[in-house]
Amino acid sequence: MANEEKRPPQQPQDDSRRRFLKYTGTAIGGVVVGGVVGGLIGANRKEDGKTKPPAPGASPATPAAESDRDYNQAFMFFNQNQFQITEAATERLFPADDLGPGAKELGVAFFIDHQLASAYGTNARDYMMAPFYQAEAYQGYQMAFRRRELFVLGLEALDGYSNNHYKKKFVKLTPEEQDAVLTAFESDKADVKGVPASTFFSMMRSLTLEGVYSDPLYGGNKNMGGWKMRNFPGNQMSYMDAIEKDGLVKMEPLSLHDHLTS
Amino acid sequence: MATKLPKVPVVVVGMGWVGGIIAAELTKAGIQVVGLERGKSRSTEDYYHVHDELRYANRYELMQDLSKETVTYRNNEKVRALPMRSYGSFLLGDGLGGAGVHWNGQYYRFLPYDFEIRSKTIERYGKNKTPEGMTLQDWGITYDQLEPYFVKYEQMAGISGEPTTPDNVGKMSKPYATGPMKVTPGMKLFSDAAKKLGYKPYMIPSANLSQDYTNPDGVARAACQYCGYCERFGCEYGAKADPVVTVLPVAQQTGKLELRTFANVTGISHTGGKATGVTYVHTPTGEEFFQPADVVVLASYVFSNVRLLLTSKLGKPYDPKSGTGAVGRNYCYQVNGASTTAFYDDKEFNIFMGAGALGSSLDDFNGDNFDHKDLKFLHGANIRYTQAGLRPIQHNPTPSGTPGWGQAFKQASIKYANRVLNIAGQGASLPFRHHYLDLDPVYKDALGLPLMRMTFDFEDQDKELVKFIASKTKEIADQMGATKTEMRDSLSTYSIVPYQSTHNTGGTTMGADPSVSVVNNYLQMWDAENVFICGASNFQHNSGYNPTATVGGLAYRAAEGVAKYLQKPGSLA
Ligand SMILES: Cc1cc2nc3c(=O)[nH]c(=O)nc-3n(C[C@H](O)[C@H](O)[C@H](O)COP(=O)(O)OP(=O)(O)OC[C@H]3O[C@@H](n4cnc5c(N)ncnc54)[C@H](O)[C@@H]3O)c2cc1C
Ligand code: SF4
């Protein structure tokens, strides 16, 4: 997975490791087990809860970075045009509104770019051996297309369909027109020369939700903005003290990055 | 040619729950065991950064790599089976601990009815109750015979549960090892509603420890933290019972277990009704080894257990036309799909918190606990409310009629993110003559061996069961003070696409009659007395429960069988 490279390899990991060893990997009775000596976690949890997320760029791996600059926002796979179509389309699937940010502000298009560059994009862990046959829906994905190939063809098809119907590129359409194009893809009403429109659409829809709600380490859910909208506290060590409570327990969310540096 | 290794008393194929239990029991008894696991090694340290929904839940970090091996699937014999190319209906374990690493830990002993389902059904309803084509079978073992082995598993894993159990489930000779898990507001709403209706709800017995626990082997583990990253994740606390933090260290401690990872077993050699050993490929190098042994144990989950027998030409393959042969027979699954969602406009719940086995359930409509005389199905379902931890990528509930994307979707899914409780049935799956496993004639794995082919669909039995159970989930949900409830009560064709359950069963079934079973009640193969096969593949059908309690009990029974056999070879039946 792509996250391997993104981990700062030096100091923080070791610190976190030591901190974590306080909680786990205790040897008891001569048998090494992955257990915790009771109570420790509850005692430490409050401190963890208080830990402020570090300023972006404050990690030792990127000294002297400007605080609001995100070096992760660059293309691993897309070209400029593909990126722009993705950004426009996913913003329609998950638009900004009074509840909070939409796909664009959350970095979803960067997330998708990074995913398509990864093992996911090349179907590295899927069974991709021939023969390929037309399948019933209940037999699942049966195409030779790799996800990244399907996605790029789908983006071209969005532009192609927009040109045919509106004489404009997808990104130049009004939001209502964009919705109409996306609806045509969703319901397989777009004829796009062999590109399975609804398969492409549902892949884009899944990727959008993943980009909104996955850990920010993958490039989406910027500043945990997706999580904050629905009071999801991200990655907490323990809910031991809260699990029985009535009513919503609100907490500052924590990301995996916080876990490394706190 | 394969490099021939020195002979050992026992070789175990697969180091998940079954392999781990058998290895621990035998090595504690002083028997030398070689454990072969096709995947990598694992430890609790691997989970320091496990709270990552995308990596573990959506990209299946811990599961079998399908590019190397998958299964093919078809609804019936008339259509072409096609491979499950990416994950869907079920998730296969791989690596040390197998699926025992990323399971939920919901622990249910099967019902006494399950083990004698054929006799008891005929006894109560007569011969004509069973529909045409349904191949119900007794298991060749009773609940009472298996009871002491359940206890062993519970003490080893530290199963957490209520001190007493309802009278509609099997009796326990010893209470659970630890007390029940904590009760959340949603669980309370469910159990209060169920009690009001006269049902008997109880806390789901849990392999996520309710408290710190030291087991009879001296293994100490800490209490569950309700972290909400449990199903599909490894536990960074060792709180979830998993072979890697329970049985495997005990086996290794004896010095009698030689564990080899990246060892993918490709065949069993046999001559004159006895196995001589197994061949495996060291996956990083492709080098082949032959491991001779006095006893071969298959503990490689349903699909590998069946596939290894078929590719090795050991036992008689099942033929659905004549109904003869038993290897691959009685493949069953789990009938989910009956459920009711309760939506609350005026209340929020912390449903992002939870543990894999946290919840409350009832068996008033499971097994034969209710009269089926006027019903068009047999068996039933465990009905439950679980709070396993709902994470934001996979949990975006909206009332029916809400668009699937755009602003309306965003608003509704965010509004209801913490405002739904789902009551669901986990239905039994009964065997049919035309549901089975065999070798695919076309598709191969990365080593060129045929893939397992599954022929299976939902029947009228399943559709009727879902309709009935759904009405019960609605009855309960309607008593839970929700703004509105929505019931799902229809089941269509089985699809490989959406995740349903990793409770695949059958194919190397157990029984007293060799014509309809592959192993006897010590899990010893009828056709090769030094081969023991263990797992949910032994089930003659699947109950309205998760399988691992029964799998675990059978593994303890199999370990006893292997030890007996080594002392005195011959059939144990
Ligand atoms: C997400 C999920 C949630 C679950 N939740 C529950 C639950 O709450 N309650 C419950 O009762 N059950 C649950 N289960 C099911 C439970 O995990 C299994 O019943 C249990 O792990 C089965 O144990 P096993 O030893 O038979 O198989 P596994 O644990 O799968 O182990 C089999 C091992 O054999 C290895 N193997 C396979 N083929 C070969 C080969 N050819 N050569 C060498 N090694 C091989 C595999 O790599 C694997 O490690 C769940 C499963 C999943 C996936
Ligand atoms: S919910 Fe409990 S048992 Fe499950 S992973 Fe978290 S701490 Fe472990």
What's the level 1 CATH class of chain B?
Alpha Beta
Q: What spatial order of strands do you see in the largest sheet of chain A? A: 1-2
Largest interface: A-B, 84 and 89 residues
Query: How much of the residues of chain A is beta strand, in percent?
Result: under 5%
What is the CATH topology classification name of chain B?
Answer: FAD/NAD(P)-binding domain
Question: CATH superfamily assignment of chain B?
Answer: FAD/NAD(P)-binding domain
Give the helix/strand layout:
The complex is a heterodimer of chains A (262) and B (573).
Chain A: H1 3-6, H2 11-23, E1 26-28, E2 31-35, H3 40-50, H4 80-93, H5 108-116, H6 147-166, H7 175-186, H8 197-213, H9 225-229, H10 256-261
Antiparallel strand pairs in A: 1-2
Helix pairs in contact in A: 4-5, 5-8, 6-7, 6-8, 7-8
Chain B: E1 3-4, E2 8-13, H1 17-28, E3 33-36, H2 53-58, E4 71-74, E5 82-83, H3 112-115, H4 117-125, H5 143-157, H6 185-196, E6 202-203, E7 213-214, E8 220-221, H7 247-253, E9 257-260, E10 263-271, E11 274-282, E12 287-298, H8 301-311, E13 329-332, E14 339-343, E15 359-362, E16 381-386, H9 407-416, E17 420-427, E18 436-444, E19 450-455, H10 460-477, E20 484-488, E21 505-507, E22 524-525, E23 528-533, H11 548-567
Parallel strand pairs in B: 1-12, 2-3, 2-12, 3-9, 4-19, 12-23
Antiparallel strand pairs in B: 4-5, 6-15, 7-8, 10-11, 11-12, 13-21, 14-17, 14-20, 15-16, 16-17, 18-19, 22-23
Helix pairs in contact in B: 1-7, 1-11, 5-11
For this entry, give a set of tags.
heterodimer; A: 262 residues; 2 domains; two-stranded antiparallel ribbon; 2 strands; disordered N terminus; B: 573 residues; alpha/beta; FAD/NAD(P)-binding domain; 9-stranded mixed sheet; 23 strands; binds flavin-adenine dinucleotide
In a few lines, what is going on in this structure?
The complex is a heterodimer of chains A (262) and B (573). Chain A is mainly α. Chain A has helices spanning 3-6, 11-23, 40-50, 80-93, 108-116, 147-166, 175-186, 197-213, 225-229, 256-261, and strands at residues 26-28, 31-35.
